[in-house]
Amino acid sequence: MRRALVKKMACAMLASIAQVPAMAAETMNDADAAALNLADTSAAESAAPSAPRPWKFFVQDAMREGAYRDAPSSLRNQASLGLIYQQSFGSSVGVKFSGRFDRFDPLSSAAASTRDETTIREAYATWNITPLANADAGRIDVRNGAGFGYNPTDYFKAGAVDIDVSPDPQSRRTNRLGTVGVRAQRLWDSGSVQMLFSPRLASRSEPGNPYASSDFQRTNGVNRWLFVGTQRVSATVQPQMLVYGEEGQQPQVGVNVSAVLARPLVAYAEWSGGRHASLAGEAAGQHDDAFRARSAVGASWTTPLDLTLIAEFQHSGAGSTPSQWRALQSGNTAAWGTAVQSSVTAQELPTRYGGFLMGIWRNAGMRRLDASGFMQLDQGGGKQVWLELRRHFDRFDVALQLQKQSGPSWDRYGAMRESRSVQVQAQFFE
Prior knowledge:
Blueprint: H1 2-16, H2 22-25, H3 31-46, E1 55-68, E2 74-89, E3 93-106, E4 115-130, E5 133-140, H4 169-174, E6 179-188, E7 191-198, H5 215-219, E8 224-231, E9 240-246, E10 252-262, E11 265-276, H6 279-283, E12 290-302, E13 307-316, H7 322-331, H8 333-345, E14 353-361, E15 369-378, E16 383-392, E17 396-406, E18 418-429
Antiparallel strand pairs: 1-2, 1-18, 2-3, 3-4, 4-5, 5-6, 6-7, 7-8, 8-9, 9-10, 10-11, 11-12, 12-13, 13-14, 14-15, 15-16, 16-17, 17-18
């Protein structure tokens, strides 16, 4: 069983090596996963070796104060419970489940009413056909992309993230709905191929539709498929090629590549292209399909102080210029509103150009204290800033998070009702 599990882990690592720059990825672990891994490490140091548990869970409580541009500030509480279960049955079959439950309660009259939300991130079974071939079936979180702030080749991100998820890019890549589908993979010494089919399981809904009424509409509203191939060309370079198809749309082609330029410096590039409509044209009901490309190019640099700095340039041929956004806002307010909401739910860049800056400092001045933050810039002045201080204990984390949005009224950040927020978070993990 252990030998099969090791092979399975090796297959997964080989298939995803081209998706995120290796050195930078070590600094970008999701807060939940990092906390759970820290708990395992701490337990291992204080207890005799034993078989790993098939499950992990966390309990979290967060109090958030939000300030609005056109309304009084609000105060709310979010209680969360998350569970990850992964188990192999013999050498050929395994299952994985990942989900969370959130309860939102108002603590002020201006806050939204009480609501509950359950998110099934992953729930699928795996069949190891041979040591180098496997198949998965169920709800699978399919993530691709070498970029940090923007991922043009992460084709299944549209509609998968809730608005209440932290804007931290890595959290948005992991705390999201998977898509229901079937995936097969074949590996060899220097690469791999993968094929995924995601069927339509609800009334038709385009990926990223802000008005989707159910989880299935969000992730399985149309038939979709994805081919992914990787091939190592040198010790530090292994490009990834992708071809994505969607019912009613032309295929999209993507490329991911990263390279270690020097020991602390990693460069990466991500590109996707194909015929499709612009954000504004689709919202206005115009048939403006044309060949459009999206890209993200950047680099990460890790200093001897365990501080990683990331800079990224972003481009989207489906976005609009500031003058085009202003004209749409004044000439067709309904289409403008739909286009802005679509850019948020589809996690797409609304403007032609954008920039992303991020810093992650592990053990920032003291052991187990992490500081991180990012700034996302849209062409024309839109800006989002996010900062976090997180203190790790053996089985407990506390964090302080600050967030601010600003920009012209036509931009996604300027159009947000909430201008800033402060959140205090406590998390217990087992």
